[in-house]
Every structure is written in C-alpha cells, then in structure tokens.
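pinned: reference chain
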Amino acid sequence: MANATYDRREQFQQIQSGLLEGEQVIAVYDAIGAGTGFIGLTNRRVIIQDKSFVGKKVAITSIPYSKITSVSVVSNKSWGGSFFSTGTIAIHVGTHSYEIEFRGDQKSHHVHNVILHYIS
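pinned: its structure tokens
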C-alpha cells in the first residue's frame, strides 16, 4: 500500500512479505519497552512481533480483528490531560492482553482508532 505509515523500512518489509492475497498494510510502528518489537496493522489483522520468549526467540503473532475483544489506552497517571496523553495501548484477545508502548501519543491514537474501526 503506497500510503502506509511506518517507522522502520525493515519492519514494514517484514510485514509486507507475509501478506495474504488482497491484504494491505495500513501502518507498522516500532514499539519500545521489553517484549514487543513492532506492531503492524493491515486491513485484515494486527501483527505483533513478540520478543518475550526464552532463548532470544521471536514470534510474529497474527490476530484477526474478529478475535479482538477490546482495545485500551493505558496510563499510569490520572486522566487530567487528553484521552491519548500516553503512548501505550493494550489489545485484548480473549483472556490475553498485548501491551504495546510507542514513542509518542500520535501512534497509539492511530493504532487505537484503526483497531476500533475494524472491531466495531
């Protein structure tokens, strides 16, 4: 997709290389903090690179939008500022939650809105 947004070309290319027929990349954002390498959003699913496995193993996890039960904005402070005053979101899939922290609140806002669009 020509107008896809991404932080790092190699992450974008990794997502692009695994697309299904007719699937298009919306955005690929680098994640900060332990565990998560990046998150990719397509018109069909969320793709998370998970680095939390033992032995320096890395997993690429695909989550169809239909399996996501909710998406949250995560904050460790009161909601004195804007709704997206943080750069962290949580994606809830059944009993499991994937927490992704971004550099800047614009990326978390975009990811939240794209996921909300596809699950509602």
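why pinned: DSSP finds two helices and eight strands in the chain. The two ends are 23 Å apart (CA to CA).
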